[in-house]
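hiii, so i know i said id send this last week but things got crazy w the move. better late than never?? heres the sequnce for the chain we talked about at the cafe, plus the structure i predicted for it. fair warning i was half asleep when i ran it
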Amino acid sequence: GPLPSSIVNLTLLLDLFLSNNRLTGALFDITQLQELRLLFLGNNRMGGAIPADFGALGRLEYLDLYNNSFSGPLELPNVPDLEHVDVSENDFSGTLPVNISTSVGVINVAGNRFDGTIPSSYGAYAVLHSVNVSDTLIGKQVLVLVKHLCHCHTTSWWLICFVFMCRWLDP
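okay and structure toks below
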């Protein structure tokens, strides 16, 4: 069933772990959860767009929405403490968000319909160490570029070059 709307009454909630629960429906406005640090809704059956005011979750550190059916553009306004974003295996489209927290270390957008390039602003994020764009149009473009630049002939070398190059690619 759907995520209970009464959850917004838990205004002091710090961590919400509801992965693997067969939840359905859209993610509604949860901005009343001002203390929320960890949001795990992965591997459910949720869908629709991410609410526009999602950035009001000012203390959010970990966002895990993998393997659902969320769609539309991915808007992640600068949430200052955001360290980990996993929205892989959804149906997001458009370009990658440019203004993500400078505290982010991991961005996993694999298996979505993103296109364009990896934003050059990601290169300025001192703690960013992983950007996974595999199974996206961006990932396909990067792999072609890396194969050409590295003259790679084996899959393992492609992966090593890809991981190395992703951090410094500019549009």
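btw The first strand starts at residue 15 and ends at 17. thought thatd interest u
miss u guys!!
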